[in-house]
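Dear colleagues,

I hope this message finds you well. In preparation for our joint manuscript, I am sending the Major facilitator superfamily (MFS) profile domain-containing protein (Salix viminalis) sequence together with its predicted structure, so that both groups work from identical material. I would be grateful if you could confirm receipt.
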Amino acid sequence: MPAVVIANTGDVPEFEGRITFNVIVCVVIAACGGLMFGYDIGVSGGVTAMDDFLKKFFYEVWERKQLAHENNYCKYDNKKLQLFTSSLYIAALIASFIASKTCSKLHLGLGVGFANQAVPLFLSELAPAKIRGALNISFQLFITIGILIANVVNYAAGKIHPYGFRISLGIAGVPALMLCLGSLAIHETPTSLIERKKVEEGRAVLKKIRGVDNVDREYDSIVHACEVASQITQPYHKLMKRESRPPLVIAIVMQVFQQFTGINAIMFYAPVLFQTVGFGSDAALLSSVITGLVNVLSTFVSVVLVDRVGRRALLLEACVQMFITQCIIGGILMKDLKITGNLPNGDALVVVIMVCVFVAGFAWSWGPLGWLIPSETFPLETRTAGFSFAVSSNMLCTFVIAQAFLSMLCHMRSGIFFFFAAWIVVMGLFALFLLPETKGVPVDEMVDRVWKQHWFWKRFFNDEQAVEKREAEMIRPHLI
Ligand code: BGC
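The corresponding structure tokens are as follows:
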């Protein structure tokens, strides 16, 4: 494997290292967490479009679907059906907080909440700064592959009557098992070892994963970060302090915005949505395979570009793209999809194409960066605690969208797409003015090099000079 000097732009220190086989193995295994999450996202939407499943568990939804003059926008509006899809995220929400405790002791864990908490942090700590974005995005890449696999399985299983949906649901155990077995084989990160006072082991692992002997500078930087972190016995308390606010706000907001792009209205309910605009059950499942494929392929764009053009450029470009597509979809439905009857064929095709363009934009921006940015911006002492807020915000918003989308579609009709478009404008403005660029900055240097330099967020840090100035001002009146 060729040696790569891990150099950074500007005045960021250079750490040596290569992209070793070890790094790659760790990334692949850890990213199985993404596969598990993705499969779960994809599978529920597919089975809820299968008649056998509906007949068995949601009979009234199935009956409503059969009515000749069914209401396009409301045929799937059923609280229990939505709860089926969204329940996973409540479970994951609780798990992410438990996982944050486990992660500060050990970087392993099971279940969606556990995996989402552990994997992005694991990847960000392990990756050399110069390619951290690309490595971290392997998590998102596996999420999208998981969704695609679920879509394909649903398409095939949908033809097996009457128990195809059981196959789709049963396969969800496979990636969980892979993650479980894989986690036995992976290294703990040097940071996690050094933090737990296993310093020599930490140095050895660092050498191994970087593939060079001289890791002194990076080792010193990690030790320094661990020393600072060890003074913090209550990370959640520290997280509530003023100086923790910038990364905390960014972590939560990135996840809230990620969900309010409307992506999961599309991911969970793509088959249902495509049926709404007039595709048959089979064609709807097939169309969601197509969007799943677009999702995977577009994530590669992010892998290639994130450490070159930076995070902000991708986020801003995607906002424009997603805004336009949501408005076009909303516009077509408003004009042509009446309460009963189907969309004309040409329109339905345009909707599918627009959904693909929307998914592509999300897949190279808010999708991966919603995980990457929160995992790389906290200082070590609050990293796991802070990141658990990001994960739980994701789960909470995913739950809200999964729970509300079909009812919102029923009541707001095409207006729901304009609702998401409005959110996209807000998140674009946020990214433009308040999101700092983190490309190429080592994780343990974020506070000094990113937050303290940002025009807005720097006010949350009392630097020494400001403290001295204040002290001098307090002393002066006594001297006069
Ligand atoms: C999001 C999921 C979403 C997926 C789509 C992830 O980053 O967290 O909610 O379904 O991307 O690819």
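For the figure legend, we might mention the following. The first strand starts at residue 3 and ends at 6. The chain has a mean pLDDT of 83.

With kind regards,
E.M.
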